[in-house]
Amino acid sequence: MDVRSIEDVPASPEHQGTVPVWWLFKPREMRDETLGGHLELVSEFEVMGGGEVHPHSHPTFEFYYVLTGRGLMTIKGESREIRQGDLVKIPPNAVHSLKPVSPNASIRCLAFAVAVKDAPAIDYSSE
Known about the structure:
This protein has 127 residues and is mainly beta. It contains 1 helix and 11 strands, in the order E-E-E-H-E-E-E-E-E-E-E-E. The protein is globular. The two termini are 21 Å apart.
């Protein structure tokens, strides 16, 4: 499971040294894997305590960046707790799910996905 944390990445001064940047994926790091694909989506979502993103998959590289809270992320049967500052890389067609670690607290994430080359249209309403 590829989870990268802002806590493990030193800031790099960018924009003429005026802005610290934490490169969770360095520029062009995934170029070859995503060549011919397209940006599928960018969204923010919240899973309330007791809720769950049910297991599903799609033909995209999907990323969850945890804004607040803690959750149990499962990808291809492997589970790991994630928390604020973590970036999770979900490979194409990998079954994945997410639920808060507590029935009383939520987890809020930013999600973005890059579809692989020739990916069909995805119906997110069924997920």
